[in-house]
Amino acid sequence: MPLTFTMPEQLHEYVPDAIIRFRYLNPGLDVAWDGHAVAMTLPPDRAVELEQELMFCVYRQKIYAETLPLRKTLLAGVTGL
């Protein structure tokens, strides 16, 4: 039976990329995103741990996306490109 984790609306845009990373880190898990919630088929004894890992991936993706323009600007300034 899949467990469903509802994502806060402000994080929706980061979930698809975060799921790619999450699947890489947790091969064999069935993960689906419907635009509002993530459904995972997983062992019940790992539900809390895997929810934490998924949220970490989502927040990591959010930080990556938000800081990308700054990193590009800094790199361009240093390299002159």
Rounded to an integer, what's the Rg over CA atoms?
15 Å
Structural class: alpha+beta
Whole-number tally of structural domains: 1
Q: Can you count the helices?
A: 2
Described by its quaternary structure, the protein is: single chain
Low-confidence stretches: none
Residue fraction in strands: 15-25%
Main sheet overview: 3 strands, antiparallel
Mean pLDDT: 91
Q: How far is the N terminus from the C terminus?
A: 52 Å
State the total count of DSSP E strands: 3
Helical percentage: 40-55%
Q: What would you call the shape?
A: elongated
> What is the H/E order?
EHEEH
Keywords: Plasmid
What does this structure look like?
The protein has about 80 residues and is of the alpha+beta class. The protein has one domain. Helices cover about 55% and strands about 15% of the residues. It contains two helices and three strands; from the N terminus they run E-H-E-E-H. It has helices at about 15-25, 45-80, and strands at about 5, 30-35, 35-40. The longest helix has about 35 residues, at about 45-80.
